[in-house]
Amino acid sequence: MRLVVVSAGLSVPSSTRLLADRLAAVAAADHAAGQPAAEVRVIELRDLAVDIAHTFTTGFPAPPLADAFAAVAGADGVIAVTPVFSASYSGLFKSFFDALSVTDEDALTGTPVLIGATGGTARHSLVLDHALRPLFAHLKAVVVPTGVYAASEDWGAEGLDARIERAAGELAALAAGLSTARAPRPARDSFEEVTPFAERLAALRPGG
Predict the structure, then answer these.
(1) May I ask which residue range the UniProt record assigns to the signal sequence (predicted)?
(2) Does the bond joining 206 to the residue before it have cis omega, within 30 degrees of 0?
(3) Which DSSP helix (H) or strand (E) runs through 116?
(4) How far apart are alpha carbons 153 and 122 in whole angstroms?
(5) pTM of whole model > 0.90?
């Protein structure tokens, strides 16, 4: 099973990366019982911020970002964690998935995704349902039932550990099932869908 972790934390270390690592460790451990060890790849969006911005102006991802996109598209399960900004996901987090969908609109279709978020107060816990869940539903991902929000006071609390165990277990089970049932996606040549310029001009002529 290939797990890809997308962390939008900005500081080093960050609570966002800490939550992402704990979710990945439990998901990998749940999968490992009687099966080959899970492959875990961590993508730190902080390191790709400039490449993400350039993708919107050039239309093409730089090699490091293209490699990250390929990892997400080929994952059996994705763990996506963002800090909360203005009661929603961070701009960097949203931009990464916007750029991914522009490059390959089917990259997350059918992929199990575990959503997580971190913030300073428990008041922002609804970000999971009013922002993150709709985002990944729009990307046609399969969002696991339990999301994990960690406020500052949650670290070290028993409740957080229980939510991590439950959410990671759901992801491991769903990813294991879909990884065997999902057919490999055919390679797509983006240039095959480009409309020839002559056809575009013809459509603009009167009666065209």
Answers:
(1) none
(2) no
(3) strand 112-119
(4) 8
(5) no
Q: Provide the token pair at 121.
A: 């107060």
Q: Tell me the pLDDT tens digit for each residue of 143-171.
A: 999 999 999 999 987 789 999 999 999 99
Q: What is the DSSP letter of 123?
A: G
Domain 2-204: CATH superfamily is Flavodoxin domain (3.40.50.360)
User: How far, in Å, CA of 113 to CA of 96, rounded?
Assistant: 15
Structure tokens of 136? 């990944």
How far apart are alpha carbons 175 and 11 in whole angstroms?
A: 30
CB 115 within 8 A of CB 171: no
Instruction: Please name the residues in contact with 124: beta carbons below 8 A apart, sequence gap of 6 or more.
Output: 84, 87, 117, 149, 151
Is residue 175 within 8 Å of residue 76, measured between CB atoms? yes
Q: How far is CA 55 from CA 62, 97, 118, 136, 186, in A?
A: 7, 12, 27, 20, 23
> For residues 109 and 104, what is the distance between their CA atoms, to the nearest angstrom?
10
Q: Where are the domains of the chain?
A: 2-204
